[in-house]
From TrEMBL:
Keywords: Hydrolase, Metal-binding, Metalloprotease, Protease, Zinc. It comes from the Bacteria. GO terms for molecular function: metal ion binding; metalloendopeptidase activity. It holds the Pfam family Peptidase_M23. The lineage of its organism: Bacteria, Pseudomonadati, Pseudomonadota, Gammaproteobacteria, Thiotrichales. Its cofactor is Zn(2+). Residues 377-473 form the M23ase beta-sheet core domain. Gene3D superfamilies: 3.10.450.350, Glucose Permease (Domain IIA) (2.70.70.10). One of its GO terms (biological process) is proteolysis. This is Peptidase M23. InterPro entries: Cell_wall_metabolism_enzyme, Dup_hybrid_motif, M23ase_b-sheet_dom.
Length: 522
C-alpha cells in the first residue's frame, strides 16, 4: 500500500462552476441574467427559494440563504441558482427559466416553472437520476459540502488477481465501510469483480471514506462518493490524467525542506534518497547549492494532483559530480534505477544451478553406481522428480545434441558461451519440435523427466562441462553476464537519452533557483 501526503493545493471552490460545466457538460451561455449594480440583498420571499437540500446533515441548509448568510453576495446565490437551472435544462430537458432583476424598481422577479417550485432540487435531481455531486453543485447553498479532492489523504492501490473491495478496504481499516458499500446493489454490481491491473484510489477524511475511485483503465472510472444516506456511485470517462511532472530545486536548507517547498511529496523525497543511495552520502554529503531534478508520474483528478507515484528519472548534481538515475524494468520483472550507461559493470549470473526444482538424489563425484554396484565417478548431479516434470535450460544457448545416447537415454546437450555445455539425461520426452542447432533461452522447457537409459527411477541427470570436462554443477563458478541483455540495453538507452535531455533542461531551472552568492566590496 502506498500513500503520500499531499502538497498544498489552491482553493478548490473557485473552480466549482468550471468543474461542473466540464463534468456535466453544461451550457456555458444562453441564459440571460442581469443584476443591478447597487443591489442590496432582499428578503428571501422575493427570491427564487430552493427547498432545503438534504445533502449534509451538519450543513443545515438555510431556508433563506440571503437573509441568513449576509456575507454571501447575491451574485453567489444567483449563480448557484442558475447553475441549478441550466443544469436541469440540459440534463432533464426541462424548460429553462430565469431570474430577472429590474433596475427601475430594484425587484427581482422569479419566473419559475410551477413544477420546479413544488419539488426540491434534491428531489428533482433524484428523479433525473443525477449523481449526488450534482445535487451539491447545483443546490445553491450546499455547495460548501462538495466532495473536495484536496481534503484528507489519498492512497492508491494497484489491484492483483485476487483482490476484492473488502481486501483493499481492510488494508485501510475500512472493512465496515466496504460492507456498507456492497450493501448498495448498484455499487455492488460495479465493484463485485475488480479487474487485475486496475487501480483503486481512496480519499479518507477524518477516518471516513469520502471518495473511492475504481480506475478500470486510463479512461473509465467508477466514482463512489459519500452522501448523508450512505454512498452513491457513477461511471465517468477521462477522470484522470496521468502525466509526467518535473520538479527542480537547489538545496538551501535540507532536501526534505527544500523538496517540500518545491512541491515534492514526502514519498518522492524519500525516493530521492533511495534512488541515489549508491551515489550520495545523504547524512554528510549534501551541500548547499546541490541541485536536484526529478521527473515523476503524477495522477491528476479534478484538476488537482492527488497521487504521486514514482520517480521515472532523477539527477543529483553537486559541485563535483552529476549523477543520473533512470527507472527501468528488466525482462525478468525486476525494476531498478540505472545509470545512463545501463550499469554495464553490473553483472548477473548467466546460469541457474538446477534444471528443475527437485530433491538432489545423487551428487557429483565418486560413488557406488546404483545399477552396476561399482565405485565410479558420477559426472553430474541427479534431481529426482515425478515423470513428466518439465526440465529447463539452465542458460541461454543452442542445442548441440538431441536424441538417444546409450546410458543417458533420451538426452539433450546444450552449447553455451565460453566453452560451457550442459547435459540433461534420462528424459521421458523432448519439447515438441526442438531440433539440433536451435537456440534456447535460460528457463525454456526443453524436455520432461523420465527414466530412460541406465536409470533406477524418474530423475534428471544434469552435467555441467567446461571444454568437455565435467564439473560439479553445484559448486562450479558460474559465468556472469551484463545485467541487461542486448535488447534490454537498446530499449534502455533510448529511454535514458530522452530522459537525459529532460533532466538537462531541469538543471537549468535549478540553476536559476541558485541562492545569490554574497559579494564583498573592495
Ligand atoms: Zn546421474
Amino acid at each position: 500500500m502506498l500513500s503520500f501526503n499531499r502538497r498544498p493545493f489552491p482553493d478548490k471552490k473557485k473552480k466549482t462552476w468550471d468543474e461542473a460545466v466540464r463534468r456535466y457538460n453544461l451550457p456555458t451561455g444562453g441564459i440571460e441574467i442581469s443584476i443591478s449594480g447597487d443591489y442590496k440583498p432582499k428578503p428571501a420571499k422575493n427570491f427564487f427559494k430552493p427547498a432545503p437540500v438534504n445533502v449534509r446533515q451538519e450543513k443545515k441548509a438555510p431556508v433563506a440563504p440571503v437573509a441568513t448568510s449576509p456575507k454571501k453576495p447575491l451574485r453567489y446565490i444567483a449563480t448557484r441558482s442558475i447553475l441549478l437551472t441550466c443544469g436541469l435544462a440540459t440534463l432533464g430537458n426541462l424548460p429553462v427559466y430565469s431570474m430577472i432583476s429590474t433596475p427601475e424598481n430594484d425587484k427581482i422577479l422569479s419566473l419559475t416553472d410551477p413544477r420546479l417550485d413544488k419539488s426540491s432540487p434534491a428531489q428533482i435531481i433524484k428523479d433525473l437520476n443525477l449523481p449526488a455531486v450534482a445535487v451539491e453543485s447545483f443546490s445553491g447553498y450546499a455547495v460548501d459540502a462538495l466532495p473536495d479532492a484536496t481534503q484528507g489523504s489519498w492512497s492508491m492501490r494497484a489491484l492483483g488477481d485476487n483482490d476484492t473491495l473488502k481486501s483493499v478496504m481492510s488494508e485501510l481499516e475500512l472493512t465496515k465501510t466496504s460492507e456498507k458499500l456492497l450493501k448498495d446493489s448498484a455499487i455492488e454490481q460495479e465493484l463485485k469483480h475488480l479487474k487485475a491491473g486496475a487501480y483503486i484510489l481512496t480519499q479518507v477524511v477524518d477516518g471516513s471514506l469520502q471518495q473511492l475511485i475504481y480506475a478500470k483503465n486510463k479512461t473509465e472510472a467508477y466514482i463512489v462518493s459519500a452522501t448523508d444516506e450512505g454512498f452513491t456511485g457513477h461511471w465517468e470517462n477521462d477522470v484522470f490524467e496521468v502525466r509526467n511532472s518535473k520538479v527542480a530545486f537547489s538545496v538551501k536548507h535540507s532536501i526534505p525542506r527544500d523538496g517540500k517547498a518545491a512541491g515534492l511529496s514526502k514519498s518522492l523525497i524519500r525516493q530521492i534518497s533511495q534512488v541515489f543511495q549508491q551515489d550520495v552520502d545523504f547524512k554528510r554529503g549534501v551541500k548547499v547549492g546541490d541541485k536536484i531534478g526529478v521527473i515523476f508520474e503524477d495522477f491528476v483528478y479534478q484538476g488537482e494532483s492527488i497521487y504521486t507515484d514514482k520517480i521515472l528519472a532523477a539527477e543529483y548534481a553537486s559541485s563535483k559530480n552529476t549523477f543520473q538515475r533512470i527507472r527501468f524494468t528488466l525482462e525478468d520483472g525486476k525494476t531498478g534505477y540505472f545509470r545512463p550507461d545501463g550499469d554495464t559493470e553490473l553483472k548477473r549470473t548467466a546460469f541457474d544451478r538446477k534444471p528443475l526444482e527437485g530433491r538432489m538424489s545423487s551428487g557429483f563425484g565418486m560413488r557406488r553406481h546404483p545399477v552396476f554396484g561399482l565405485r565410479k565417478n558420477h559426472a553430474g548431479t541427479d534431481f529426482a522428480a515425478p515423470r513428466g516434470t518439465p526440465i529447463h535450460a539452465t542458460a541461454d544457448g543452442s542445442v548441440k545434441f538431441i536424441g538417444r545416447q546409450g546410458g543417458y537415454g533420451n538426452v539433450i546437450e546444450l552449447r553455451h558461451s565460453e566453452g560451457v555445455s550442459t547435459l540433461y539425461g534420462h528424459m521421458s520426452g523432448f519439447k515438441d519440435g526442438l531440433k539440433s542447432g536451435e537456440k534456447v533461452k535460460r528457463g525454456d522447457v526443453i524436455g520432461y523427466v523420465g527414466s530412460t537409459g541406465t536409470s533406477t527411477g524418474n530423475h534428471v541427470h544434469y552435467e555441467y562441462r567446461i571444454n568437455g570436462e565435467p564439473q560439479n554443477p553445484m559448486t562450479v563458478e558460474l559465468p556472469k553476464v551484463g545485467i541487461m541483455s542486448e535488447p534490454e540495453m537498446h530499449a534502455f538507452k533510448n529511454f535514458a537519452s530522452a530522459m537525459g535531455e529532460q533532466l538537462a533542461d531541469l538543471r537549468k531551472l535549478a540553476l536559476v533557483d541558485k541562492p545569490a552568492t554574497g559579494q564583498t566590496g573592495g
